[in-house]
Amino acid sequence: MTFLQIIFIVASLVFILFSIDLRKRKKISFLSFVIILLWAVFILVSSFNIQLLNSFSQKLGIARGAELIVYCTVIFLGLVYMNLMNNSQKDQWELSRLISQLAINEAFQQVKSQLETRKNTTEKDSFLVHMRVYNEAKTLEECIESVIKNGFKKLIFVNDGSRDMSLSILEQQQAKHPDCLFIICSHTINRGGGAANKTGFTFIQQHADKLNITHIITFDPDGQMDIRDTETFFNAMKAHPKADIFLGSRFVKGGKSENIPAMRKVILSISRRVTRLFYGVKISDPHNGYRMYTLETMKQIHLTSDGMHYANEINEYIKQLELQYVEVPVHIKYTDYSLWKGQKNSNSIKLWMEMIYKKFFFK
């Protein structure tokens, strides 16, 4: 018996034990288990008769049986990897769902009486400002003050496991502005930007009848966005009363992006083309988080991604639900802090890989 035969025998036994273990832990489907098991048995049997394996391989146009085993093994490992990735994603989704629901339940109990007695007194009381918060202590207070100064009195915050003073600042601002509705959902651990949006969106969906709102504005508290741009959203809403979603854009007429790095421009340019190719929607600024949704639109959006892929999910919903969207010019100001705090350019590769995986392989 050759050394190569011994390697094949050991490899086949490993595959058999591996498949049995995965199936016991319900990490792979029964079909995947059968395929892996049969392939492992085939390798084991062929290891004792290399000539038989070579003859079979040559019928397939492959010179040697060893090459056939290598090719097929790579394919099967790829299938196993994708299966494990799917299960891992589902486990992550379930963990985020549990953390999210705990945060929602706790937040609702804190504001329940306020929701039952609160009445709308101004036009802007029909709008809820949504902010996801992760270690935003440096800019958070100033941001909240600017939002309230501009007449918004209903705010929902998702504190995504911040390790700085963000939660304390939220509680201080809540005490300082008793006339405002402060909904604070706190994740026990950090889950990502998509998970934070998912929590906020789910709170709105579950308690929409008590919020007495018509629209939701998503706004980042890192100092990049200008709350005064909401006036442009309102003008667009009046001009397009049937629109379902209003998308902030730096690149339509009237939009502006201050101090944007050159590489970020390149990445955003690529993202426009990728969004159109993958999701069939022509959006000039597909990853701009400054948006305004109607309540009915918000009820139809159910995010699954914990990370920044959530923006692609929203673009996909626009296509699937045939939502009427309007792009609205906004002003985004890049600072040293926001560049340090926000998405790194290198993360765009990871985001595109996740987009391909979720589009074609996730199930």
How would the blueprint of this fold be written?
Layout: H1 3-24, H2 30-47, H3 50-59, H4 65-117, E1 127-133, H5 140-149, E2 154-160, H6 166-176, E3 181-187, H7 193-206, H8 208-211, E4 215-218, H9 230-239, E5 245-249, E6 256-258, H10 262-279, E7 291-294, H11 295-298, H12 310-320, E8 325-329, E9 331-333, H13 336-341, H14 347-360
The structural class is: alpha/beta
Overall 3D geometry? elongated
What low-confidence regions span 5 or more consecutive residues with pLDDT below 50? Answer: none
The CATH class of the largest domain is Alpha Beta
What is the averaged pLDDT score?
87
Number of domains: 2
Number of extended strands: 9
Helix tally equals 14
Looking at CATH, which topology of the largest domain would you report? Answer: Spore Coat Polysaccharide Biosynthesis Protein SpsA, Chain A
Cα-based radius of gyration, to the nearest Å: 26 Å
Instruction: Profile the largest sheet.
Output: 7 strands, mixed
CATH superfamily of the largest domain: Spore Coat Polysaccharide Biosynthesis Protein SpsA, Chain A
Descriptive account of the structure:
The chain has 363 residues and is an alpha/beta fold. It has two domains: 3-89, no CATH class; 118-360, Spore Coat Polysaccharide Biosynthesis Protein SpsA, Chain A (Alpha-Beta Complex), CATH 3.90.550. Helices cover 56% and strands 12% of the residues. The chain is built from 14 helices and nine strands. A seven-stranded mixed β-sheet has the order 3-2-1-4-7-5-8. Strand 1 (127-133), helix 5 and strand 2 form a beta-alpha-beta unit. Helix 1 runs antiparallel to helix 2 (30-47), helix 3 packs across helix 4 (65-117) and helix 5 (140-149) runs parallel beside helix 6. The longest helix is centred in the N-terminal third of the chain and has 53 residues, at 65-117. The chain is elongated and about 85 Å long. It starts with a helix and ends with a helix. The mean pLDDT is 87.
